[in-house]
Amino acid sequence: MMKKIKFLTEDSIEMLKKNVNTLYREVIQTGEKSLGDFLCDIGQIKDTPFEIEDFILDMSQPAGKEPLTDAENAQRIYNHMKELSDSQASDERIWVAYTLSEQIEYMKYRWKATSSTDMLNRYFFNYSKNRSLFRNGISRLWWIGRVTYDEKREDPFELTKFMCNHQDFIETICGRSTFNNPTVQKATLNAIYDIVKNNKGDNRETIREVAKYVNLLAGTYILDMLDYQEIYDKVYEKLLDVIEGEV
Amino acid sequence: MQLRSKYFTYPVITEEADFYVNSSFESSVEHKMDGYNIRLILRAKLVNRELEDLLSKEVVMIAHHIECTQTCFRKVVLTNEIEKEFVLRDEEVNGLIQVCTFLIANRKLEKYSNSLFSQDFKGFRFDIDRGCILAVGSQINLRVNKVRDDLANTASIFSIIPNMEDTETNIKINTSGNKIVIAVPRETFSIYANMSSSFDIQPIMHSMLIIPALVYALTEIKDSRTHLYNYEDFRWYRSLRKAAEKMNVLFDEETLENLEPFDFAQKLLDSPIPKAVYYLRGDNDEED
């Protein structure tokens, strides 16, 4: 079934943010109201001109293992909403329509908000603009797809799966300005992928060290002008150093 | 990219340090709308004969670093020309765009030296990697005012919304976002929503809700006149500034010090209070 991509007006978003406690209680905690009911006079959920095939998100993992659905769901969201431009996909108005209405069941499954602040952090854009893209429960799936999708690979979502299995990478690296350059992002991700694939190392500290190192590099070099191989080699060598240092 | 003071391990031409003598590197950006897209005219001026010579041979290059953090857009425009045009596509960017310009090594420089090194460095030689910074220009922040909204039209800078807290009986105003938000008690809002579509009562609504909100916002701007850059992120501020400019009122420190918020709010809204009073007297019937 085809469906238009949804969005909320700015006035609706302002109203929701002004009334976070009531919103949390009535729509998230008790579920006594739908978003449409809550918005009542202020306006309804609107349609963008973009039509997509309707989709549902995977919620098959048991409690405590919800992050294991991320890779599949990033593929589903990105595949269905690939037509959005980066500018549109950085717009809070789209994603709040999904977190609070279209995909609210998924949100309650994956991001159980225990307070209105929790809800603001995961249902809205409550961090810096860049970081919010990777924090909002639905937009993060689109942006993970966006930065990892590689049509040159046999499986274009190979890096998506890898990144989703390493949530530290998402928390530490995604949403940092240096890594917004696709070449820097992919070269770093691939270097980590190759190291992990060869069983040379795989832990939170390694990923943090790499993030620190690349940020440091960005202070001296204009990293964006280096090509893929130059960045890959620098990160790979650094990773080997870090791992050898740990032994 | 945010330019910060950095410590370099080799001489760099910057405004903050005297690593070189009689040398400079300056940059500027002009932007124009090109249909829905934004055309950037990127300029850089290098003063240092030896580096200019390396630039003509593309051993060093000018790197204009363009970034829009909101859309994760990041791009380097490399050139050895002092003026270069670049088109940013509408769908790539939104909000704030930062342009930082550098002179960088385009290949590894071995035993690099320069006759215009300052006294401290004269005669020293440095090995500099490809991609390393040799001179730092300016950071220029541009704001994209999109010709078309990506999703819908958003004309007003005011947002009138219901306040769902049952205990709240007063109207609250908030200026910390893109719009000036006027939160009205829930029941009052329902009545407002039913009546607001009637064009005739607009002067009354403006007098009761918009004028106080505008006075609030203008007072805030007046009080903050020494650090208005904090407000540049808010669309309501930029729109008000533009509307004020059309009335020959500049939002500078001196003008704002003498601004009368209540008077100016009425001017901006074309004096709705007398119109509201006439309407209440029933004058609108005569117009019909």
Can you walk through the features of this model?
Chain A has 247 residues and is mostly helical. Chain A has two domains: 1-151, no CATH class; 166-247. In chain A, 59% of the residues lie in helices and 6% in strands. A two-stranded antiparallel ribbon of chain A has the order 1-2. In chain A, α4 (70-81) crosses α11 (158-164) and α6 (92-102) crosses α7. The radius of gyration of chain A is 19 Å and the shape is elongated. Chain B is elongated. In chain B, the strands form four sheets. A four-stranded antiparallel sheet of chain B has the order 4-3-6-9. Chain B has helices at 49-56, 186-195, 202-223, 235-246, 253-257, 261-268, 272-281, 283-287, and strands at 24-34, 37-47, 60-68, 73-79, 83-88, 95-105, 109-112, 126-128, 133-144, 158-163, 172-174, 180-185. Chain B has two domains: 13-144, Immunoglobulin-like, CATH 2.60.40; 154-281, no CATH class. In chain B, α3 crosses α6 and α3 (202-223) runs antiparallel to α7. In chain B, β1 and β2 (37-47) form a beta hairpin. With 288 residues, chain B is of the alpha+beta class. The longest helix of chain B has 22 residues, at 202-223. Chains A and B meet through α1, α2, α5, α9 and α10 of A and β3, β4, β6, β10 and α2 of B.
Quick synopsis:
The complex is a heterodimer of chains A (247) and B (288). With 247 residues, chain A is mainly α. Chain A has helices spanning 10-18, 20-29, 35-39, 70-81, 86-89, 92-102, 104-110, 116-123, 129-133, 139-148, 158-164, 167-172, 182-197, 204-220, 228-246, and strands at 2-7, 46-53.
Reading side by side through the largest sheet of chain A, how are the strands ordered? 1-2
Major sheet of chain B = 4 strands, antiparallel
Tally of individual domains of chain A: 2
Strand content of chain A: 5-15%
Helical percent range of chain B?
A: 25-40%
Number of alpha- plus pi-helical segments of chain B: 8
The biggest sheet of chain A amounts to: 2 strands, antiparallel
Across the major sheet of chain B, the strand order is 4-3-6-9
**The CATH topology of the largest domain in chain B, please?**
Immunoglobulin-like
Helix/strand class of chain B: alpha+beta
Number of strands of chain A: 2
Tell me the structural class of chain A: mainly alpha
**Overall pLDDT metric of chain A:** 87
Strand fraction of chain B? 25-35%
Secondary-structure element pattern of chain A, one letter each:
EHHHEHHHHHHHHHHHH
What helical percentage do the residues of chain A reach? Answer: 55-70%
What count of helical segments of chain A does DSSP give?
Answer: 15
Q: What's the domain count of chain B?
A: 2
- Largest interface chains and counts: A-B, 45 and 50 residues
Spans where pLDDT lies below 50 across 5 or more residues of chain A: none
User: What is the overall silhouette of chain A?
Assistant: elongated
